[in-house]
Design brief:
The structure is a homodimer.
Chain A (H helix, E strand, L loop, with lengths): L3 E4 L4 E4 L9 E4 L4 E6 L4 E5 L6 E3 L14 E6 L5 E3 L21 E4 L3 E8 L2 E8 L6 E10 L5 E14 L1 H4 L3 H4 L4 E5 L2 E4 L12 E6 L5 E5 H5 L9 H5 L7 E2 L3 E11 L4 E11 L2 H10 L3 H19 L2 E4 L3 H21 L14 E2 H7 L8 H12 L11 E3 L4 E3 L9 H13 L8 E4 L2 E5 H13 L8 E2 L19 E2 L2 H18 L3 H21 L9 E2 L5 E2 L10 E2 H9 L5 H15 E2 L2 E2 L2 E2 L25 E2 L3 H11 L2 H10 L9 H4 L7 E4 L10 E4 L4 H13 L2 E4 L2 E4 L9 E8 L2 E8 L8 E6 L2 E3 L3 E3 L6 E8 L3 H17 L2
Parallel strand pairs in A: 41-45
Antiparallel strand pairs in A: 1-2, 2-9, 3-4, 4-5, 6-13, 7-8, 7-13, 9-10, 10-11, 11-12, 12-20, 13-19, 14-15, 14-18, 15-16, 16-20, 17-19, 21-40, 22-23, 23-24, 25-26, 27-28, 28-29, 29-30, 31-34, 32-33, 35-36, 36-37, 38-39, 39-44, 40-41, 42-43, 42-45
Helix pairs in contact in A: 7-19, 8-10, 9-10, 10-12, 11-12, 12-13, 14-15, 14-16, 15-16, 16-17, 16-19, 17-19
Chain lengths: ~800, ~800
């Protein structure tokens, strides 16, 4: 553990040295205000939309890395020496004899807050950054303490760089944007009010200030930093004097300076505030609320309570502490973050082009629906509004400006069914199906009709082989078989279609839509039948058909990509594959795709650009979709193995990509050891094991589904809570506490004979229940659920067939 | 002269200290390969298109400023101390006691090359950067000399950062682009070959190498620089060892290291090469051509010869050395650069969105047509291909991909006539009018018809007041009166239309297109008449009509912008204004818009955002179009004053924005003292005098027209070379040597009685000619032209009336 460890008691990840292999970040803010912050205080903030309402500027992929940020400089007025409260940007231990350990650095990423500590020349600082609940602002709460035995005179300087609101223009159109800034000081505040925000309409202003009297300020970057200087050595800090500069064109910043005298042992509190408001008056009123530091720390406690309550809805206790840290805290936390922002903004997504994804955001509901079903319901309605009358949908959309873009993705609309089913299973709110939501291009229709249109649209795209035409891409954005091509087909979309039709059919049956039920049941059966006939390659299922009619993802494919994870895992998840093919194809996944760091998406990777396969062939082998280990897709293998009853394999897959297991190899893995990344580099690359694109959409939700619903095996269903664990044989017991439809289920599972799967008995509040579905209680009370696992291998096999036939029974 | 001076003998601008207020840059390469380089070796390179074929990466508006670049590190192997051959990026004199003067820094920006010298710890270096004629590559020719008395052992490291070809993706889509790189070493070369270049088709590769045996290399940025390090302190240089890293994903770079031993006093030559090629074989063949440094320096001499020849086509000798430096060297050099690249790529235009402008590129022909008329002809045809059948045109276009965008600009198509007229006046090539060029959306038509369609299109946009509907904007891109509005009108476009109809009528008459001549003559007369009636505000002409029918640029305008330079200057340039109004409105320009740093575009600036006026009101007062001193528009006042015969005023305006006059106030002006910027901040801003956006299109060409054609007064006309100077009374004489239609005119002007304007006599090769038009000679020989100026004020006035009626006579 070179860089950090989990402090589960405080629900914090503690980073013990500042020079992490990449910036290890946190997302502050659960509502409209979002602040990304790294372990050395780099990052940026925005209000509602990272493109149109970017508040602070960030230089992505920068040299030096991770600049700028939310910086506080401390200057010893006696010596003129200066340093940072967050190591960056002064980097005091770099190029000096000072050991990094002596800086007493510590960063605690908590849930919605980040605390960074440091010590230099006898001065200790602790800066807590957070976004108070319900506010459009962030607070920087600084404690500065004199640990020496003599009085000290310090000067503090803050530094942040404003973005010129429209992040895309800000990073591309300099001849224009460098002439629109206006930043001025009034009292203890700096206001940044720039006239131009072309797409979003004119927004108000940003403000920054301190609760203590400031001694000076700077609003112009070049003045504060000085020619050919950087954040590492601002001329104002070097000289110990703010220049009181005004921003008129150029690069607006907020820097205030304060004189601080500290007696021996004395500690002082200083609060800094950064926010967005409509008017100066509004900003001034909000500012006053946080003049007293007690009010600030009270807000921090409120935030911690919010998260304690949030996580309290699902808590597991397993023999594996890594599992516990993730499933109880960090995986759920990442799920909430991706639910909030999907891939809209990160350290890799620059927040200007992606918006919220239709596919992404539907999936991201899976990781939060057990806690915030009302928000999920609202999100599903918002998503349904991004669907067209013909059933197709935007691929991405921008909630603030209510705009969107199609992209020719063959799978998009089906995800709405998955999210809707998850919401109804969680809540039992079958009436939701009748709620009316408008199409982009037409009148309102019921949620049920939105789903039906989605199915109809995808069915209308059936190809010559009976699969679904690929178009620009399916889930694999980079497998581009031909946007306008009528020959190329995806063999994965029919599996997904079948799976969602199963959900749709269940809902249709529950709501007595008999005509639809009969009609779509027959269609679904045909899809299943066709897939088994046409997609089997001999040892596994193919991935699709290229525009020349050749199989993609076949043992016979000449270019590479001979086996693809998706059709194997989904053939089982969907219930399409028969037992023999299911086992064989997952054995082949294990043989060809499994590595010590997880399951590669394809094997072998492509080595040359191939126009008929598209972007996947532009990546170096082992990277991204070209043989990378996709953390988003790995859970599908875990789920498939859990369905097959192979709990040791499922759990091995789960652990292979589990972030805590990466802390021992952080210099290889690079990204945060508490968060899933988009992918881990595959074995065909010299950088095998290196992760990229942390915090991205999808990975968190699906890993949570895999562990919580399929490995620990507790999942909401229409009629109750299914208990169906598939665990390592070595596990003797585990518990899950889960709120479901208002009641709390305290589930205790024992595994006396060390099986992978099989529920022998379930006792609820002392009474044994039939089968493995625990009933719904309307009493909002606590219920004890005692589960005993025990089946031999053959019985497990039958159990799986039962699962399979349970699902098939819907048809 | 704090930062530099002109060395006209060598045609170089010499920068004497590295810490210029902004990077002072140069453009290398006249053909397909372009390299922007600053005085400390920052900058970037591209091949043909800065968006689709960017070779090296640049971080615009960066902190630290001006990174990365073309860097050479030197490391003393005995001490471990290291520094840069170009001051940046190690910045050895920053944060140290070393005085900047002791670095012996010097940068010589020449024509197509840049030489940077430095000296540190007894080691002198001189690096010459240039793009050889006709090659798609740049050479870095290093001389390193041991000025001490003992042997020295050095290690050299180079550093450049590759762009992932598509510059827009490279700066926005990191989750994608950071997985496509491939950079490897083979022998003495590094190859960067990345599969993805989506818009341009797949391009080959970039290569970098040295003519000397390398001892190591790095292709991966993070490896070479090290965590939390920067270009200032790469870990490889600190440790004195390349890591031989490969780029596979991430950020590809080219760094090679070489061991250099130097005896006392010894000097060595080392060549580095960076280029673009289709294949490794092609790259290898080209590389071999430059193994011998003699071949390299021979290419440098060829380049110097090219420019000596280029500039030899126009040389003036005036009593003002600032004028001579500019008109003979730097203004013409900037004209050629803007002809090549307009505003496609600079340090402010990020090269991704603008492309080549239709308006820009037509104007930019004015500054080069006297030297490279054949290239101008080709450019005009390329421009005409960006016109639609209805006469409208793209606003910008991308030559490589042959794509473009309209923008709703009311003036665009007319600029084609200006360029065509300039070409025909220069060459006499009237047959060009009959050459056929395709429209974007239709069959080919003659150049003449392209011009006629342009006029017809603009005429079809006539508004209710008889001006032309403004649409998104006219020349003033930021005066947005309503793209879809039918009420808003530009009062400037009719002046421009009238001026270009005059040229069109002249060409029609020359080519006996009598019907057109009669038809358009009458229309033009109506435009002139209407303008004088409707646009006069009492003391000056208004700028237009807003969407509520109110005048813009009127004394009565409530929001600001009461007077606008454009309609005043162009009323005279076009010949629309009568004498009294012409004099009065230019007096008002002087009274309201003139400042010590030039003429503001409007006065007073707008202070609040105003949706009916658009982007102009988003700038801080004094910046850009909101009361800035536009270097592009100032020449129009010079030309108008020259036409009015007020040579002292015209020349005062010329000098007010002349770059050399800024070298004494470089800490206020900030941008290069040898190049025009887009604008200088107006007097209503605290940063009055600060220039922004240097090297942009338009300014150079129009300032050259003003000085060469209207102040020095030598201009090509259809029938010969007009001699019509309008100079300061204090000038006793000046000469102009100019090639015109193959013959060389050595023009010597004397001004014995100290007048502003008036040609008393012209003697050509000893024979006096009638009037002030020197005839065309077909003999390609040198001809002596002796001109005597002498007229009193009243005669000057008549002279102007003659000019005016000469122009009117066409009608």
């Amino acid at each position: 553990m070179k860089y950090g460890y989990f402090d589960d008691k405080h629900r914090e990840f503690v980073i013990t040295r500042p020079d992490t292999p990449t910036p290890w970040i946190n997302y502050l803010g659960c509502d409209e205000y979002c602040a990304l912050i790294s372990n050395t205080a780099g990052g940026y903030s925005f209000h509602r939309d990272p493109k149109d309402r970017r508040i602070t500027r960030y230089r992505y992929n920068n040299v030096p890395v991770d600049r700028p940020g939310r910086y506080i400089y401390l200057r010893d007025q006696a010596s003129g020496d200066y340093w940072s409260a967050t190591w960056q940007p002064v980097l005091k231990t770099q190029n000096s004899k000072l050991k990094i350990q002596s800086y007493n650095y510590e960063c605690r990423h908590g849930l919605g807050y980040t605390i960074i500590k440091s010590k230099y020349s006898g001065i200790s600082t602790q800066t807590t950054y957070f976004v108070p609940l319900g506010e459009n602002l962030e607070l920087w709460a600084l404690k500065v303490r004199n640990d020496t035995k003599k009085a000290r005179s310090l000067k503090l300087f803050t530094y942040l760089e404003f973005c010129l609101w429209h992040a895309e223009m800000d990073m591309t159109d300099f001849q224009y944007t460098l002439n629109i800034a206006s930043a001025v000081n009034e009292g203890n505040l700096i206001f940044h009010q720039t006239g131009y925000a072309p797409k979003s309409g004119r927004f108000g202003l940003a403000y920054f200030g301190s609760n203590k009297k400031i001694s000076g300020y700077d609003c112009d970057r070049e003045t504060f930093l000085g020619q050919y200087h950087s954040e590492s050595n601002p001329i104002a800090v070097e000289k110990g004097k703010s220049f009181n500069s005004v921003g008129s064109g150029g690069n607006p910043i907020a820097s205030v300076s304060l004189n601080i005298s500290l007696k021996a042992g004395e500690e002082k509190d200083i609060i800094f505030i950064l926010g967005a408001a409509e008017t100066k008056e509004e900003a001034g009123d909000i500012y006053k609320k946080y003049l007293d530091e007690k009010a600030v720390y009270k807000k921090l406690e409120d935030l911690k309570c919010y998260w304690a309550d949030y996580l309290g809805r699902y808590q597991a206790n397993t023999p594996d502490t890594d599992v516990n840290s993730m499933v109880n805290i960090w995986n759920q936390y990442q799920c909430r973050t991706t639910f909030n922002w999907a891939r809209f903004a990160s350290y890799y997504e620059s927040g200007i082009g992606r918006g919220m994804g239709f596919r992404d955001s539907n999936q991201d509901t899976l990781g939060v629906v057990h806690v915030i079903p009302d928000r999920v319901k609202a999100r599903i309605k918002e998503l349904a509004q991004n669907q067209f009358r013909n059933g197709s949908s935007y691929h991405k959309f921008f909630p603030l400006t209510k705009t969107g873009e199609k992209g020719g993705y063959s799978d998009d609309p089906l995800w709405l069914i998955m999210a809707t089913a998850a919401y109804i299973k969680e809540t039992g709110d079958m009436a939701f199906l009748d709620e009316k939501v408008k199409f982009i291009d037409g009148e309102a229709a019921s949620v049920y009709d939105h789903m039906k249109k989605a199915i109809d649209f995808v069915l209308s795209e059936k190809g010559a082989q009976g699969f679904i035409k690929m178009r620009f891409a399916d889930w694999n954005d980079c497998l581009n078989l031909g946007a306008d091509n009528e020959v190329a087909e995806s063999a994965w979309v029919p599996l997904f279609l079948y799976m969602e039709m199963r959900e749709f059919l269940t809902m249709a049956r529950f709501t007595d839509r008999t005509e639809d039920y009969e009609k779509y049941k027959e269609i679904a059966a045909g899809i299943k039948d066709n897939f088994n006939k046409k997609a089997w390659d001999g040892k596994w299922f193919i991935r699709g058909i290229d525009k020349y009619g050749e199989a993609v993802g076949s043992a016979k494919s000449k270019e590479g990509g001979n086996i693809d994870l998706l059709p194997q895992a989904w053939s089982i998840m969907s219930g399409v594959a028969g037992t023999d093919k299911a086992t064989m194809c997952m054995d082949m996944v294990k043989k060809h795709l499994d590595t010590k760091y997880g399951i590669m998406l394809i094997d072998p990777p492509y080595t040359e650009y191939d126009e008929k396969l598209g972007a996947v062939t532009t990546f170096a082998p082992g990277l991204k979709e070209n043989g990378g280990i996709f953390c988003h897709a790995n859970p599908w293998a875990m789920i498939a193995e859990a369905i097959l009853g192979r709990g040791d394999i499922a759990f091995k897959y789960y652990k292979a990509i589990l972030p805590p297991t990466k802390n021992k190899m952080a210099d290889i893995h690079l990204t945060e050891g508490y968060i899933y990344s988009q992918f881990i580099t595959g074995k065909h690359n010299a950088n095998f094991g290196r992760a990229r694109n942390s915090w991205l959409t999808g990975s968190a939700a699906w890993n949570f589904v895999a562990i919580a619903e399929y490995i620990l095996g507790v999942r909401a269903d229409y009629n109750g809570l299914v208990i169906d664990p598939c665990i390592p044989k070595s596990w003797k017991s585990f518990t899950v506490k889960r709120v479901f439809r208002g009641a709390t289920y305290e589930i205790s599972v024992t595994n006396p004979r060390g099986v992978n799967k099989g529920v022998k008995s379930i006792v609820v509040d002392g009474l044994e229940v039939e089968g493995n579905v625990v009933p719904v209680f309307k009493d909002k009370r606590v219920h004890k659920v005692e589960v005993v696992m025990d089946l031999n291998r053959k019985e497990q096999q039958q159990q799986w067939q039962t699962y399979h036939s349970y699902q098939s029974s819907i048809l």
